[in-house]
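Milestone M4 deliverable, item 7.
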Amino acid sequence: MPTSIDGYRATLCGAIVGRNGRFLKQALKKSGYLCFGKVKGKSVKGEWPPQVLSHRFIYEFFKGPIPDGYDVDHIDGDRANNKINNLQVLTRKENVRKALSKITNEEREFIRHSIERGVDLAEKYNISQQTVCDIRKGRK
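Output delivered:
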């Protein structure tokens, strides 16, 4: 386990510690994932720091690099629960299969033909907006 990655650290309970040793505020994205702004070197006036998905950073901090073709999965399905014991890596195919197992064939058909917004359907069925899009386009 590294002592830091680019001067940033993670805690077992899912917090991010910045270069100055203080806990960073994490933003909740529309997708339900937490993220934080990471600054490399000096920040440039008027530019926003790049956003880093917290769960990916925390996994890499404690477990090492995420293999190509793998996703970091939240075991309990709560995208804001970034405790290290709630994170695992799955192949993309396994991760999609896990997401789809949350909904029935009837719900999938409803999503396919619904005129509701994708973001609303994703929240309603606790799936990603990408999964909603894939269902609507017949990819799932």
